[in-house]
Design a protein that fits this description.
This protein is an alpha/beta fold. Strand 14 and strand 15 form a beta hairpin. Helix 1 crosses helix 12, helix 7 packs across helix 8 and helix 13 packs antiparallel against helix 14. The two termini are 45 Å apart. The structure holds L-homoserine (HSE). L-homoserine binds next to helix 7.
């Protein structure tokens, strides 16, 4: 077994990079013992050399660019923590692989968009790319799927993979605040990405789901196949009414293989309030994995932040130091399949919020349209009201989104709707 140091170069000294340097500085003997060899940070680079980051960088060389760092002869592992789906992150990772370096990154956007090409390039070069920190921060879900659960046929991966959205939704409910008010709060707390639609539009979480789906189902990563819907249109009324029916609204990622193909979606869904996902508060993440042998595995923890994300980066570095060389997406890149995309979700119960004109037969007309579409009602509640219209909530039995959309289209012909209906899928967990 080799006892020479594993030499690292880190590009990017923001929250994650700083966290990694801190762990390397704080845990030297512990890391050496666990790896059976020392980890040595040789050189770093970032946008500004002079910025005070609250850490002592004097022991490390400063590289003038990411590409220069990535190809230095005196590093073994290039640790890319700059982010960005193209540009310097992508070119420097390719340069590192070509120069014979292994790569550790937290860059979900890059891998979601170019993961297959990069995995093939790594394989051709005999190098590895690891990305535990790219999905759900400190939660070791990439390792769980790639290693701990590798003996299972995975039937479903789901979860809350964007802490900012979960913060916004749970805070709206707890404080009775509007989306806009809580969005501003999240912004003041520094939770939002520089482009907030990455969070609120489900894009960031969609990147993460696409990566997990690739490992879980042996598929080429296919971010374009993820059906995305953000949380911007969720109202406090939806949250409160759903709670009355025993549900919580989550921005939920679901990846599942069925006879219809591989289904991937990151959309607002209702989950039972009593389920682990229903109980998930604040900026926390949860990844739930269903395997045929293991049953359901629930992983919960911080999805962002210096310590949790740096912890995940370190786990990849330690694997490489130990000589554990795993394929990027859990199997050789050339064996990953082009799986057919499911164009429709598997049937599920739906929650419908209607605003009906308060006149005789209004409810019956709507119920008839559901019946015509073959949709059966499971539960229904009408609220007391002072206005000319009445709020009605319906929980359906399992149906398809297509059938429901047909029924909703037909509602308009009844002339009894006072507002556009809201329909949200209920994911049973
Ligand atoms: N912005 C993300 C979140 C963290 O709120 O979970 C980085 O992916």
């Amino acid at each position: 077994m080799t006892t020479s140091a594993l030499r690292l170069g880190i590009a990017g000294l923001g929250t994650v990079g700083r966290g990694v340097v801190k762990i390397l500085q704080a845990h030297g003997p512990l890391l050496t013992a666990r790896c059976g060899r020392p980890l040595e940070l040789v050189a770093v680079t970032a946008q500004s050399k002079d910025k005070d980051r609250g850490i002592d960088l004097s022991a490390y060389d400063w590289a003038d660019s990411a590409d220069a760092l990535a190809t230095r002869p005196d590093i073994d592992v290039y640790v890319e923590l700059m982010g960005g789906s193209d540009g310097a992150a992508r070119s420097s990772i390719m340069a590192a692989l070509d120069a014979g370096k292994d790569v550790v990154t937290a860059n979900k956007a890059l891998l979601a968009l170019h993961g297959q090409a990069l995995a093939e390039r790594a394989e051709d070069a005999g190098r590895v790319i690891r990305f535990e920190a790219g999905v759900a921060g400190g939660i070791p879900c990439v390792k769980a799927l790639t290693e701990g659960l590798a003996g299972n046929e995975i039937t479903r991966v789901l979860g809350v993979m964007n802490g900012t959205c979960n913060y916004i939704l749970t805070r709206m409910q707890d404080a009775g605040l509007s989306y806009d008010e809580v969005f501003q709060e999240a912004s003041d707390l520094g939770y939002l990405e520089a482009d907030p639609t990455l969070d609120t539009g489900g894009i960031d979480a969609g990147h993460k789901l696409a990566l997990l789906a690739s490992i879980a189902f042996g598929a080429k990563v296919d971010f374009d196949a993820v059906r995305l819907e953000g949380i911007e249109r969720i109202t406090i009324e939806d949250i409160d009414r759903a709670a009355d029916m025993g549900f919580r609204i989550k921005l939920l990622g679901v990846a599942r293989m069925s006879g219809r193909g591989l289904e991937q979606r990151m959309t607002p869904c209702l989950v039972p309030e009593s389920s682990p996902l229903g109980q998930l508060e604040g900026a926390t993440n949860m990844v739930v994995i269903d395997g045929d042998a293991c049953g359901q595995i629930v992983l919960r923890g911080a999805g962002a932040g210096e310590g949790p994300t740096a912890s995940a980066v370190m786990s990849d570095i330690i694997d490489i130091a130990r000589g554990l060389r795993l394929p990027t997406f859990g199997q050789p890149a050339h064996m990953l399949a082009d799986l057919p995309r499911a164009h429709a979700s598997v049937p599920a119960p739906y929650y419908l919020r209607l605003e009906l004109l308060d006149k005789p037969g209004a409810l019956a007309k709507v119920a008839a349209k559901l019946g015509d579409a073959g949709i059966s009602i499971d539960r229904m509640r009408q609220y007391g009201h002072a206005e000319a219209s009445a709020p009605v909530l319906i929980v359906t039995h399992k149906t398809t989104r297509d059938a429901l959309d047909h029924a909703i289209e037909d509602f308009s012909a009844t002339g009894v709707l006072a507002a556009d209906p809201v329909a949200i899928r209920i994911e049973m967990v």
